[in-house]
């Protein structure tokens, strides 16, 4: 009897030891062939960054205006760099269509290039929130499905590629034919930058490991810990110029040790701005409960914009879409913020018209999701709404200039500023006029929103563009902020 008990005790100890060993190894970085030998110690920091855009064919800017590499060509170039593995995260997979219209051709061509990776001996790995996708099943890819509804009650909105853990793309475009044809998109290609690519690969690896899970792990493996964050960014050389950079992600429950959240990244970029903050975003709505009967004010970004505008006298311009999906309270927030700056500087709001775009029911003309200041850029995947950052998965990239920069190379920050100003001053912007609210539906003008400089601003005043609830059925509560009655 005693020997039987002893056996049971020994067996229990062995089991405990095995579990302990498994836990220890899951929290330890084990670099092997899977990682191509790239580590935080030997990764490359001499990087090349290229801005890429998709400009709908019915949109034409002035001949001397800023232009960048077309998105479709940039993605082909990235695939041509691939030697071993291409990792893709996208909220949508709709590159193919049965319609023969020319607008669908770029999507079909990209789909064909992805299908051809296997013949080149290149592995294609995809993390997706779309279950049973017909298009994904035809890609010759290894696909991991993430059940975001079970994990966070949200969706997978991340959009980025990582190639051989050396090169990557991140931006607003998804694997949707519209992102290569009828939507205005912007992103960056980053080449030979394995330190930053390795960090984004860790975000991909987190998604990859969530397949078949309906719960969020209580702790994350050490191999998912971030390489950089807002307090310890990577010191890089980008296009021959010294710069700082790091990767961020959302939501908070998907953030391992050392990773900055998208909200932390946005906050740092706004707080570090000295002279201007330009924001180009699809949706701006500082509310929680968008699809419920009870709305609550969400101040995380809105309060930072107010602080920059009022207390630090920073010029703020906000360019947002006005489309079928634009929430009717958006412009109440805009006008509330506008009223705050009346005494300090004249503020105005503009809208970018959808014009002749065929797909005006989807996101309007502007699908960009970026911010540029005099110090830094932030490129993300999420709209600036409370529920986006709380429930949905997204990733972001911050690149900032060093203060003591001596050379005068045209930096990425200045390139993105020029792209924003091109849009801002283009013929596709419609000023928001006093006491005249834009109605964003197909029976009205379908614009997009901006803040344009006024006479006061042009002579040195501060321009601001903000959104806060005014009169549209939202009341203030000292306990919870704004909510619907």
Descriptive labels:
19-stranded mixed β-sheet, Diverse_PLD-related, PLDc_3, Endonuclease, Chain A, about 25% helix, PLipase_D/transphosphatidylase, 27 strands, globular, alpha/beta, single chain, PLD phosphodiesterase domain-containing protein, two-stranded parallel sheet, about 475 residues, catalytic activity
pLDDT < 50 stretches: 21-35, 346-364, 442-485
Under CATH, the homologous superfamily reads Endonuclease Chain A
Number of helices: 12
What average pLDDT do the residues reach? Answer: 80
Report, as a whole number of angstroms, the end-to-end distance. Answer: 70 Å
The CATH topology annotation reads as Endonuclease, Chain A
InterPro entries: Diverse_PLD-related, PLDc_3, PLipase_D/transphosphatidylase
Domain PLD phosphodiesterase: 152-179, 362-388
Protein name: PLD phosphodiesterase domain-containing protein
Family: Belongs to the phospholipase D family.
């Amino acid at each position: 009897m005693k020997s039987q008990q002893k056996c049971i005790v020994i067996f229990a100890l062995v089991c405990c030891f095995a579990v302990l060993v498994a836990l220890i190894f899951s929290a330890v970085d084990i670099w092997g062939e899977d990682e191509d030998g790239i580590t935080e110690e030997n990764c490359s920091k001499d990087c090349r960054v290229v801005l890429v855009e998709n400009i709908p064919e019915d949109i034409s800017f002035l001949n001397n205006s800023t232009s960048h590499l077309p998105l479709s060509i940039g993605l082909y170039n990235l695939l041509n760099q691939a030697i071993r593995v291409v990792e893709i995260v996208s909220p949508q997979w709709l590159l193919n269509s049965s319609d023969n219209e020319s607008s669908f051709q770029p999507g079909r061509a990209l789909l064909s290039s992805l299908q051809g990776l296997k013949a080149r001996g290149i592995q294609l790995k995809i993390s997706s929130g779309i279950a049973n996708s017909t298009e994904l099943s035809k890609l010759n890819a290894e696909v991991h499905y993430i059940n975001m509804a079970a994990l966070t009650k949200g969706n997978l909105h991340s959009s980025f590629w990582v190639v051989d853990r050396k090169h990557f793309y991140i931006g607003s475009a998804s694997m949707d034919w519209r992102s290569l044809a009828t939507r205005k998109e912007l992103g960056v290609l980053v080449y030979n930058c394995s330190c930053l690519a390795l960090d984004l690969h860790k975000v991909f690896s987190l998604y990859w490991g969530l397949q078949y899970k309906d719960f969020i792990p209580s702790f994350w493996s050490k191999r998912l810990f971030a390489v950089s964050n807002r307090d310890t960014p990577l010191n890089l050389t980008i296009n021959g110029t010294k710069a700082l950079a790091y990767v961020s992600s959302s939501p908070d429950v998907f953030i391992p040790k050392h990773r900055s959240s998208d909200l932390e990244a946005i906050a740092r970029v706004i707080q570090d701005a000295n002279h201007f903050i330009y924001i180009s975003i699809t949706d701006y709505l500082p509310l929680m409960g968008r699809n419920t009967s009870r709305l609550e004010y969400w101040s995380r970004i809105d309060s930072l914009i107010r602080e920059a505008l009022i207390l630090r006298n920073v010029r703020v311009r906000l360019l947002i879409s006005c489309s079928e999906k634009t929430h009717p309270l958006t412009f109440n927030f805009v006008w509330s913020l506008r009223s705050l700056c009346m005494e300090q500087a004249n503020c105005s709001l503009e809208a970018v018209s959808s014009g002749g775009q065929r797909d005006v029911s989807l996101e309007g003309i502007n699908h960009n999701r970026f911010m540029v200041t005099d110090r830094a850029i932030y490129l993300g995947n999420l709209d600036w709404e409370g529920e986006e950052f709380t429930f949905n998965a997204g990733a972001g990239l911050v690149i900032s200039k060093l203060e003591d920069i001596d050379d005068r190379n045209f930096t990425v920050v200045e390139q993105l500023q020029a792209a924003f100003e091109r849009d801002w001053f283009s013929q596709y912007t419609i000023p928001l006029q006093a006491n005249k609210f834009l109605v964003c539906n197909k029976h009205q003008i379908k614009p997009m929103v901006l803040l344009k400089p006024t006479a006061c601003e042009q002579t040195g005043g501060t321009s601001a563009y903000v959104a806060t609830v005014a009169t549209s059925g939202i009341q203030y509560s000292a306990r919870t902020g704004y909510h619907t009655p």
